[in-house]
What does this fold into?
Amino acid sequence: MRNRLNKRFTLPLFLLIIPNLLFGNESDTLTAHFIQEKIKIDGVLDEAAWSKAIHISDFTQREMEEGKPATEKTEIAILYTNNKLYIGVWAYDSEADKIKASQMNRDFSWGGDDNVEIILSPFNDNRNGYLFVTNPNGARADVLVSNEGEGFNKSWNGIWDVATSITEEGWFAEFEIPFSTLKFPKQSEHVWALNIERNIRHKREQVMWKGWSRQFDIEKISQAGKLDGLKNIQSKEKIELKPYITAGLEKTKGDPTSGIYNFGGDVNIDITPTLKLNLTANTDFGQVEDDQAQINLSRFSLYYSEKREFFLDGNNQFQMNVGGSNQLFYSRRIGNDSESEQDVPIIVGARIFGKQNRTNIGFLNIQTAAKDSVLTTNFSVLRISQDIWDQSTIGFIVTSKLQDGHQNLVYGADFNFATSSFLKNKNLEISGSVAQSMTSDSLNKDNTAYDLSLSFPNDWIELDLSMNDVQAKFNPEMGYIRRNNAKRFSAELQFNPRPKFLPFARNLEIKPIEIDYYFNSATNHLESINYEWRPLGIRFKSGEFIELNVQHNFDRLTESFDVLDTILIPVGDYWDNRMEVQFNTYSGRKVYASVEASSGEFYTGRRNQLETSLYWNANKHWNLSANWAKNYLYMPQGDAIATEISARVSYAYNPKLNGGLFGQWNSEDEQVLLNFRFNWIPKIGSDFYFIVNQELSTANNKIALLNTTVMAKFVWRFAI
It folds into this structure.
């Protein structure tokens, strides 16, 4: 097979000389080549069309030697038909036996593998785009990018495919991306933003086509090159149907075995080439993996990210923050009742999202069912933002939660000024937002939140300044607020020098200050101070990283709270001083690990914390990981230990057939949660899942089975 592949590559490489001589290879623009013949997606780029296309190969190092030519040759060419885009990748490697490719799963973690990342911005708006990633095994990952990387939705799953091959010359890839996966304006000719990044892990080398300065990541679309030559393209599929059926059994301790049967689905309609209508009925999330349970040692609520696919597509169109992690719309409020801690069925829902010219649009309306004490509820969101200038936006949001006799309304506005040419070539962002809540059974006083921030995120120096206020009665019932009745002032300054006198170091990290001051919004009395400084952090050229942090925390408690349900922290003022060390080995190795340890005061006592993670990529089929964390509390009421353990075994037969087992346990819940998940992708966009969930109690040093769920789910995609 290897000899056959070499012969098949010889003729196209010879023919590449002619177009490169005619059109050059140093342009900021790549011209796509129109074809009518069929391209077989097999990673063997032997069709004649590839030799006729214009190729680019002018890649420049971002790491390890910024600005120097790439040490290995990379070529990219793009073909298209009226309905599909094809991207060819020639990733040559003079040491092909050292190519690193350890994963094949969908949405794989590509940080340790050789890979190619391609970002496309059909709107060419210096803000938003689609990132497609593959490794030499043909694993697929994709990301919805918004605001040049501020929004980075890794859970989005587009309809596209890729295949790869490996020879002694390197590795090669063919992407097939239907235009229906992308949103683009309706016009006869298109110019899109395009950038490509390649990572050569055995050299720790990162090369990019354009925007290779360390000031910019690939998500910095304003620094990308251009893709032109696209004429008369169209989305072949205007309507997408995704019905599902679920069947299974559930056994809960003390109850008879019951059956599970459900059906429903989604309908996606392209209202315009850039606006999508998403309808859902009897929505089911049975295939979604459980959250990893966390032991909460603070007095504030924990945050869990969204995993449900229905809410992930177009998620960036609905977001607005009022400082830090405070979100006006948090989709997990829909279908998850926080008070009763149970899932609530979604009866029906509709969303419209996309972009019309320079206007970004997001509208959502969902009705959930009544369940036990939870009333049927209507959730609505309207989010509009307008692109202004080159990289900036201004917008507003309205959210509404409506129940029988109760309504919660939130409205707000925001702006974001961004530029990549401050002081000629530096990044600068200035943003602000303000919002107010109105609740039917509240006096609606002290119900405002605002945020104002400045960010200077650059390679050698990073500076962030912000101030925000969340008043006591600000209550976005569709949002997430970590801490209310709090006025916050924060500043962070970090230097990342690259000293030549330390040949083993890629760069240092020195952080003189990272500080958050919290004041009571009503009284302006100081409540908390979180201060951290990093005297030294080192990122080694070998890929390892180590840092030392010194932390000083002040907390004024006006109300007592419990830790681990056994330790009462009384009202009072507390100063805690802590030391922390973190160490990570290079994730491109077959076996790698991370360790975090800290020690210091904790309110009325002391806390020592140790967490370690171990990863073993046995081969491209098998990946294993384990995490162990322990907190040792030494308190006047008595000592306590909080333990968290989790492990994962993943097996991928190929990129479209994989399974895995995830298990976790913690000492607070005293439960083992096991999740087995098998996924087969018969065609891109359709899925078959087989899931087994088990809950076991370990209380009183006895193992008892609490709950078992066995179910299968089949989703089939039809396109019209």
Q: What stands out?
A: The radius of gyration is 27 Å.
